[in-house]
Amino acid sequence: MMQVLHLLRIKHWIKNILIFFTAFFGGELLEISNLKTLAFVFIYFSFTASLVYVVNDLKDVEKDKLHPEKKNRPLASGAISKTHAYILIALITAALGIASFYVPLYVFYVTLIYFILNILYTLWLKHIAIIELFIISLGFVFRIIIGGFAVSVVPSKWIIMLTFFMALYVIIAKRRGELLHTTNNQTRKVLASYSEQYLSSAMILVLGVSIVTYIMYTIDEQIITRFNTDKIYITTIFVVLAMLRHLQQTFVHNNTESPVKYILKDKLILIIILMWLSSFYFLIYF
């Protein structure tokens, strides 16, 4: 059972918490009906994302055997056979097909686009430098949009841009870590198209854009009117602090290759994120 959960990458479901963010920042999260809808959509989307992971692992099983960490994945290690993986795909697909009748129509459409785009990524797009970074970053934007469609809340244009740029920053840091820690680029051929200097420079560029975007969001007149407060800018402190912490861990300690593993282990970054969310909660809901 644990191997199945590992194959589904349950730990990566933490990324899908973004589905709740549109309602949270829209001041609509505490509605019970919204929470129920978002919880169902969260599970629906999470299994869709897991389905993509299984397909990806099936395609890359031979390459994963050459990777120092990925060789321990269920398929690469032989803990789960390809036959069982295909059966799992069939079961999840059937369950998602039924669940699709119970999610808002536009949630289904965006989730379907996400699935198709990520299958194309698995089969082809992940080998195209820079484009592959954008595809992954768009996946996080889809999560924000799906959360909005789930509860009929339109996400701010600033939030959409901020999500994209911050996701892009994290993905670039991941590629930098992979480049430094991987001696055999056959496990991810696109790394041959990058250099440490290029990725480090790209990180700084995108980090600056992300912070400016967040500041623009906090002082936007529509946002101030929506929240009935002009104090949102105060939360910028936590965003800059979190980004600098991540930058330090990337450049000094080189331990952000796995974003999920990093965020679950770095207690300081978790405290900063909690403080950021708490400050936002206080400003929006009180």
Automatic annotation (TrEMBL):
Any Gene Ontology biological process: glycolipid biosynthetic process
Top-level taxon of origin: Bacteria
Enzyme class: transferase
GO molecular function, one term: transferase activity, transferring alkyl or aryl (other than methyl) groups
A Pfam family assignment: UbiA
Cell compartment(s), UniProt: Membrane
Keywords, comma-separated and alphabetical: Cell membrane, Glycosyltransferase, Membrane, Transferase, Transmembrane, Transmembrane helix
InterPro entries the UniProt entry points to: Prenyltransferase (IPR039653), UbiA_prenyltransferase (IPR000537), UbiA_sf (IPR044878)
Coiled coil: none
Main subcellular location: membrane
EC number: 2.4.2.45
GO cellular component: plasma membrane
Name of the protein described by the UniProt record: Decaprenyl-phosphate phosphoribosyltransferase
Organism: Kordia antarctica
